Amino acid sequence: MRRSDITEVLSEPWLSEPWLSGPNRLLDEQGKPAASSAIISREEAQALVQRVVAMSKADGIDVQVGGGYTTNVRFADNQMSTAGAVTDFSVAVQSWFGKKHAVVQTNEISDAALRSAIDKSERLAKLVPDDPEAMPMLGQQQHRSVDAFFPSVAGMTADDRARIALTALEPARGAADLRAAGFLINGANATALGNNKGLFAYHRSTNTNFTLTVRTTDGTGSGWAGAEHNDASKVDFADVSRRAIEKARLSRNPVAVEPGRYTVIFEPQAVGDICQLIGFYADARATDEGRSPFVKQGGGTKIGEKIMDERLSIYADPFDPQILAQPFDGDGLPLGRQVFIENGVLKTLYYSRFWAQKKGVQPTGGPTSFLMNGGTASIDEMIRSTERGILVTRLWYLREVDPRTILYTGLTRDGTFLIENGKVSKAVKNFRFNDSPLFMLNNLEMAGRPVRLAGTEAGGAVVVPPLKVRDFNFTSLSDAV
Amino acid sequence: MSSRREFLRQGGAVAGAIALSGPLRAAGASVPEVAQRTGAMDAAIRDLLMESLNAATMAGAGWADARIGRYLQNFVFTREQQIINVVDTDSIGIGVRALVNGTWGFAASRDLTKNGVAAAAREAVAIAKANAVAKDRSVQLAPAPSVGEVSWKSAFEVDPWTIPVEEKADLLLKANAEGMKAANVKYVFSGLFLRKMERNYANTDGSVIAQTIVQSAVQQQFTAVSPDFSDFQNRGNTLPPVARGWEWVLQQDIVNKSRQWGEEASEKLKARPVEVGRYNLVLHPSHLWLTIHESIAHPTELDRAMGYEANYAGTSFVAPPDQYLGKFRYGPEFMNIQGDRSQPGALGTVGYDDEGVAPDEFLIIRNGLVNDYQTTREQAMWLDWWYKQQSRPMRSHGCSYADSWSSVQFQRMPNVSLLPGDNDRTWDDMIAATDSGIAIIGDGSFSIDQQRYNAQFGGQLFYEIKGGKVVGMLKDVAYQMRTPDFWNSMDMIGGRRGYEVWGSFFDGKGQPGQVNAVSHGSVPARFRNVNVINTGRKA
Lengths: 481, 539
Known about the structure:
Distance between the termini of chain B: 62 Å
Low-confidence stretches of chain B: 1-38
Strand content of chain B: 25-35%
Strand order of the largest sheet of chain A: 3-2-1-4-5-6
Mean pLDDT of chain B: 92
Structural class of chain A: alpha+beta
Number of helices of chain B: 12
Number of domains of chain A: 2
Number of domains of chain B: 2
Structural class of chain B: alpha+beta
Number of strands of chain B: 25
Number of strands of chain A: 19
Largest sheet of chain B: 10 strands, mixed
Helix content of chain A: 10-25%
Radius of gyration of chain A: 23 Å
Distance between the termini of chain A: 33 Å
Oligomer: heterodimer
């Protein structure tokens, strides 16, 4: 639920069109792989951090290192298109002189290059004005580790990746009516941070992500499916193909249904796409400053108030077996299970170290995961209990319309269906919506079992359930398939 | 081994200039010689490129290209009267692309030794060979004759890496202070985003290209909060990002203008909520660029039209090409949309693209009809039939781009612009000619479907027009549109005097996602009877 100052700045809406993590990536190369043949070990990372610390002449120094090896295969129109492998590794240093600081990042780790990066960060830090919000450096912390590194991903070869592409390409080519476009990306990465006060944290992880869009050759149907895990043995690649193909065929020849307020069943991917956005607004400081949806009437925050249906809780937990996320934040604060919304009540907002000190509370740490609890209903049960409604596979191009309410606009995509009398009756044209996840989660009817998503528009490790809600606001139709 | 060290030594000098350049430097001050090193390619880099191409060929590549790039970025973030952070990044490495029996492979590495670049080349070939098992059709490239050994530099005068950080911070903090003078403005964010790319390219056709590109952006946001905490309003997107240097940043006079921008945020608190309905819209270039970007530039990317982006960015309603080229009326007769990579200072402008092509200027929409698509060498082949029919040469328009040495190049947007009408009309003339409607300045919220039909756009400032005059400010305005209906409702455009170039630093596309900086030139234009919604709600 938190972003560092830099990513917060970078994800402001005026930065336009970072569909992915574009801007974040400019500063944070961790998402990008790297290392050579091997992923840096804890011991190697510690030695590297110490090497950098020893070179520092500043009052203090923060060091962050990371990199790995990322591979991918891409295909479209039933063809292989591009495929690649990238190795990279970067070192970022932040030098401190009193309350002055500056960050320099390089992807060269020779002594000379590190020396040059440190010198530069020291020169820059001396030149900038004091930062009145500078916090004392963290000392040693107790970090529990998360075992998120699996040979099933790290050991995958180019041949293995081509064969995974074939799980989608073969059935699509074999059918006269289908065109497949998909993407497999594997990462094996390690990241570590430390400073001259004894802080050190290390995390290594693998991840495999497979997404597939199958379109029908008549141009009227499109189906999407995806899966992701740190361990490739937990991903059923062929099942992704089966689901996307089934959705593509079911979604053919969509009919126009009047826009308006509908009971909507959101598959987990669609829930994640819109509900994850809540986290980007849950900043205590912005709220205290009067510019967030969590401002209480007349000032102050809504902490302690019921803000959504009491069956729902939203939390972060890097140790959840479906998540296996980095167990520390960018400052090096250890992360545990942190509940933000419990049974519909806002329990806390994100408190940075600076704002927590100013307000006399504990910093929450910047979460590396987003989880929502659920219920026990299956999607089939949700459909059977619906007299008239819409079933949504996923959402697309979500953009802020009004930050005061987290009002977003966006569209349905790749499988939108009408439900009549407890059954899926027909495929319908895609809708544009204008609605807020806060409104939506107040209109809950049923919740299902949470699952790990194959990435949302905003990215990150997300586990959410399917939801049935009433009165969701579709404002226009789209002819897009 | 020595080649990498040599490269870093030289590169390090460029980067080091930031702190060595001493006290405050005025615009137009002399630039250290090292920053102007834009001549022939460094011999050490050239050797590494040749080494990698040789290794790719020896391993079995029928065609290959290699890029060694150094990507420098400098960010200065401030809020109110304090620095949030200063960040400097430096990334360097090689990306090698190999075509083996009609299948692509790509590998990238930060290891810039002879062995390292050869290993990357061999991995690219190995990946291409592994993918043969899944091949259906063979990739073919449109010819692009060798351009020889050339170099090119973008339109900057003062390299931002020669400007000390305190000068950058000082400018932003002064601007913030001016913005805070406006009533109810409680928060101001200002950031500088600066990029410098040293891009070196070679391919097995024999082209060897060195290019230096500088890009600059000032991002600001002014936030006004009502005294009773019942509302807050933002004013942002005040300046376009550009491919120019520090001289441009100074020319923008952001300190003085920040007062006005702050007052605009403040005025939005008092603006009247718009009534839902159909309105005539007069759209300023600072707004219309984004509508052009989303509803014209993206759907005329040929890879999208052919389904190559179906799994992420989406496809296009302008497909299949044979049903649209020369036939589909996108807009009125006076509508001409140009693709180019040649406008000085525009973000898409380069000397050569990332597969050795010197780009040309081409009309995507000609007299209102679809006339062409954005292409790379692989894609130009797909339109061979159309170019023959038109008696035009079959060639790539030079739209290949990779956002880093570590990213594989693919089709990205060039500058895509609405050309001026044959008249003298300005923004003010168009408002005066409008009996009733809404004038919109600046880009705001934006969203469009995966085939680029249905879009919704907000803005920064909305003004009600009555009887040819602006009569007051509106808020909570967004318009919804269907692309062909919208462009065909355009009934008036401005002339050359009203032409402005705007754009974005962060256009996303591809898997893995890549970011492209794009510019769009536009004149003001008027649209009839567009559906306007009110986006205000209560939490």
